[in-house]
Amino acid sequence: MLTLRTDHLTKLEKSTHSTLMKNVIQNNTIAIVEAASLCQVSPSKISKLVRKLGFDNFKQYKRYFSGQETPEIISGKSTETARLIQFLENYNPSLTKDFLSVFTKFDKVILFGLGPSYITAEYFAYKLTTVTDKNVFVTHHEDYAERLADDNTLLVVFSVTGTFTSFEPLFENIKHKDSQIMLVLEENINTRDSKADYIITLSPPDQGSELLAFEKTRTVFFIFIEEIIAELRKQRNP
């Protein structure tokens, strides 16, 4: 499970991250000392940067941005129930806190999804009306999301694989409105080129490559949503 954040990086850290990422893509075996030299910073600065981005260490950072990072897989062919049990047993509550630390900063929230993920977003919007007074909108139309967006807006996009379609044109237009973007993924995919400000990867065991994106379940999203709603309800009624 990983939450990738770039919004709280300094200008120097963003520049270092950009240089570091390019070098890791070109050489996924690069050592931290060499990487630090190329970025003109100390190795300790690299370690601090990758932890600030949400990684445990430089090795995990390299695996992620070189496209090698993969989710944990249950050995053998598992049922959906077994997959969900493993996800629940390993659920990290910090994911809920990470989401809310961003969510609470905005007055307007746009929930976006396609296909079954849109139904997930609709459900989330309904639940949010019971625990928050924020202006929450839900859509699967990019032009509608773009019209709603302003500098006090958070766009939250739900996607199991992130591969059904490219969200980057939407992200580019939303950025022009000075809005911020959170991408919530189920599967652990390489997002090094994404323009999203926040990326939350839930990383349950994979559903299987034989299933198309629209055929995959959204149950993990619903579990994540219920954790968020429970925490908001607790904050509202301490």
TrEMBL record:
UniProt organism field: Alkalicoccus halolimnae
Domain of life from the UniProt record: Bacteria
GO biological process: carbohydrate derivative metabolic process
Location of the HTH rpiR-type domain: 1-72
InterPro entries in the record: Homeodomain-like_sf, HTH_RpiR, RpiR-like, SIS_dom, SIS_dom_sf, WH-like_DNA-bd_sf
Protein name (record): SIS domain-containing protein
Domain SIS: 99-238
Gene3D superfamilies: Glucose-6-phosphate isomerase like protein, domain 1, Winged helix-like DNA-binding domain superfamily/Winged helix DNA-binding domain
GO molecular function, one term: DNA-binding transcription factor activity
